[in-house]
Design a protein that fits this description.
Number of helices of chain A: 11
Helix content of chain B: 10-25%
CATH topology of chain B: Pectate Lyase C-like
CATH class of chain B: Mainly Beta
Strand content of chain A: under 5%
Structural class of chain A: mainly alpha
Oligomer: heterodimer
Mean pLDDT of chain A: 87
Low-confidence stretches of chain A: none
Largest sheet of chain A: none
Order of helices and strands of chain A: HHHHHHHHHHH
Shape of chain A: globular
Low-confidence stretches of chain B: none
Radius of gyration of chain A: 20 Å
Number of strands of chain B: 36
Distance between the termini of chain A: 20 Å
Structural class of chain B: mainly beta
Strand order of the largest sheet of chain B: 3-6-9-12-14-17-20-23-26-28-31-34-36
Distance between the termini of chain B: 32 Å
Mean pLDDT of chain B: 89
Largest sheet of chain B: 13 strands, parallel
Radius of gyration of chain B: 25 Å
CATH architecture of chain B: 3 Solenoid
Chain lengths: 260, 411
């Protein structure tokens, strides 16, 4: 498995995609900090980007990589290697390389601009953790989709729909429900609904750490009470982990059953 | 007013012809209380520096001038009031009054003034106070250049620095207040002028009006209080050139207006408050040439607001410029600058050619269902806000600025 992981990782390295991704984040971080020089403001802007782009890039990248290396995968399947090792190795190779590009690409400019002296370090740290989690989650989901659909067009379409659903449509439905049931106390519902979607959960986790959380008023207070406790942070951590493990497990099951 | 001033001047003049008593630790008279008892109408009492452990020093019906030299300390030892005055034409200057005890039944203050007129409290220091200066049923007093600091922890166990109850014609200038419940509190107090004070880090409000009409406050700084200023159940209040800053927290305001009519807000600055102005049941108020910068909500208009005019204000980089309940109710928002305005000015008359809608779709949604605030900065919200901007459907059609400025307004 490690061999395959290593192979996938260096394959991406050689094809320079990791670098493109890395330089994109590096540039983004540098420009943002150059423009407003205020770490906590930059974190808010960056959060907007991370929450939209990281899942999208994870999805597209995962599915592209899987379809592209299909022939090689088939070759590997002919060898006496366990299937789980092949797919897990490939998945980890892609996800780790993407996560590394993100962490290094954003981390370097922030360190240059004096992150360690700033009180924003924990906010930034949680941003990176959340970004890494999102990468792992969406790469796993896209691998699963790619395994499910032979047809590349169908697979791509499904992956985009999946991203659209979690990033946008989910919030739309969420908002509709909130509006529809506005006569009822909705704090608990809002809490559950935003914990269940990894993108919403990430956004909430970061927002609550920033000054801007004062805007959230009463609902924000309920949220803060939940996420502020060890129980709350444990639950959100477990949910994020589950969002990684369940798609990975599903992907491996699919791979085990699939007739290549 | 002029007649009162004349009387005041005459009294001051009269004081100069009185005798003088010196109080110091090694003098013949070593306590302020004794000096006050001995003194006759119009005398001056000079207190040299030192520690005077005294409380309930009572000045009754005597026009005295008390002057502290190098801030003599009056330590009330957490018991009762420090100085109690009920007199015409007196002056207290240059003292440091400390350790006023808390009580649930009495409003113990450093200086209690009741049924008095024509007085001046000047350049005193107040430390560890419950109430600072408590004035009841009095008129025409001047409170100038005092410094207050308390260590208020909870609202129920703390008092106000300057507390006015049933007063008129008070002049409060250049005071500094920190760490009490309300910095300056007025109840049933009319025609006060409150100028150039600094109220910081107070538990509740920097300045608080209840049932007090015809007051002016200008040039004050309200920073990091529970809420900057609360003006409630009053009319004819003039608010000029004040700064409301960093009143940040989930229940904080820069300025809270409740049941206010016929008032004016001119050239004030609201910066980094959770809510810049929250207006509830306010009518006929002119908001002119104010700056709203980097607030969470710049202005929250709640129910029952009629005929308010917003003109020549700058709304700069607020998360929400305006939230609004109900119909337009003849409130006008014409002729302001909005940093979120993205229109153009083809005819070069310095007004944008398309109207600006200050109520964004999201702020409308949040107003209807407060819980939807959890969608703050979600991509979905950005998308629908954009489409709402292109063709407005939900946001109130009649709340708009038909003459938005293209450039920031200089005033």
């Amino acid at each position: 498995m490690y061999k395959i992981l290593k192979y996938s990782f260096f394959d991406l390295f050689r094809s320079r995609w990791s670098f493109v991704y890395f330089f994109f984040y590096l540039l983004l971080g540098l420009v943002l900090l150059f423009l407003n020089n205020d770490l906590s403001n930059a974190i808010i802007t960056l959060m907007n980007v991370v929450i939209v782009l990281v899942p999208l890039i994870g999805t597209i990248f995962g599915i592209m990589y899987f379809y592209n290396s299909r022939e090689f995968t088939e070759l590997l399947l002919a060898q006496p290697i366990a299937r789980r090792h092949i797919f897990l190795g490939q998945y980890l190779g892609v996800a780790i390389s993407l996560a590394l590009s993100l962490v290094l690409g954003l981390g370097i400019p922030f360190i240059i601009y004096g992150l360690f002296e700033s009180s924003a370090i924990w906010d930034f740290f949680s941003l990176l953790v959340v970004g890494a989690f999102l990468t792992f989650i969406f790469t796993a989901l896209s691998f699963g989709i790619a395994l499910k659909f032979e047809n590349k067009i169908k697979g791509f379409g499904m992956a985009i729909v999946m991203w659209l659903f979690l990033a946008i449509i989910y919030d739309g439905l969420f908002l509709l429900l909130l509006m529809y049931f506005q006569e009822y106390p909705l704090e608990d519902f809002a809490l559950v609904a935003s914990v269940l979607n990894p993108i919403d959960l990430s956004r909430t986790l970061i927002l609550l750490k920033l000054d801007i959380s004062a805007l959230l008023g009463y609902t924000g207070a309920v949220f803060k009470e939940f996420f502020g406790t060890t129980k709350g942070s444990l639950i959100s951590f477990i949910v994020l982990l589950a969002w990684v493990f369940i798609p990975v497990w599903g992907m491996l099951r699919l791979a085990g059953k699939k007739d290549f | 007013m002029k007649a009162l001033l004349l009387i005041f001047l005459i009294f001051i003049g009269f004081n100069f012809y009185g005798g003088e008593i010196t109080v110091c630790k090694s003098c013949e008279i070593s306590s302020v209380k004794d000096a006050v008892e001995m003194a006759e109408m119009g005398d001056t009492i000079r207190v040299k520096s030192g520690l005077y452990k005294e409380n309930n020093i009572s000045i009754k019906d005597k026009s005295l001038v008390l002057i502290g030299e190098d801030f003599p300390v009056i330590d009330a030892q957490m018991q009762g009031y420090a100085i109690i005055v009920s007199a015409q034409a007196f002056r207290i200057e240059g003292f440091k009054i400390i350790n006023i005890g808390r009580s649930h039944t009495s409003d113990f203050a450093a200086i209690l003034i009741s049924n008095s007129a024509n007085f001046e409290i000047k350049n005193n220091r107040f430390d560890k106070i419950f109430f600072g200066i408590l004035i009841e049923r009095s008129k025409n007093g001047r409170i100038i250049g005092n410094k207050f600091s308390g260590n208020a922890k909870s609202q129920a166990h703390s008092g106000n620095a300057i507390h006015l109850w049933k007063t008129s014609e008070m002049h409060i200038e250049d005071n500094q207040v920190e760490g009490v419940r309300d910095g300056i509190y007025l109840e049933f107090s009319d025609n006060a002028e409150i100028k150039n004070n600094v109220c910081k880090n107070n538990l509740r409000y920097g300045l608080h009006f209840m049932f007090s009409d015809g007051n002016i406050y200008s040039g004050n700084l309200f920073e990091n209080n529970g809420a900057g200023v609360a003006v409630m159940y009053s009319k004819n209040i003039k608010m000029y050139r004040n700064t409301f800053k960093n009143n940040w927290g989930s229940a904080s305001y820069g300025l809270l207006l409740k049941e206010i009519t016929d008032s004016e807000l001119i050239q004030n600055t609201f910066e980094e408050n959770t809510v810049g102005i929250s207006a509830d049941n306010t009518s006929r108020i002119n908001y002119i040439e104010n700056n709203f910068k980097s607030n969470g909500y710049a202005v929250k208009i709640r129910g029952g607001c009629y005929r308010n005019v917003f003109k020549r204000n700058n709304f700069l980089y607020n998360s929400f410029d305006l939230t609004y309940h109900g119909h337009s109710n003849e409130n006008s928002f014409n002729g302001n600058f909005w940093s979120n305005y993205s229109g153009y000015d083809l005819d070069k008359d310095s007004f944008g050619d398309i109207p600006y809608r200050p109520v964004s779709l999201f702020s409308y949604l949040v107003n209807k269902t407060p819980e939807s605030i959890v969608m703050l900065r979600s991509l979905f919200i950005d998308l629908i806000e954009f489409s709402e901007k292109v063709s407005p459907i939900f946001t109130p059609a009649d709340v708009l600025d038909s003459q938005p400025f293209i450039k920031k307004i200089q005033w």
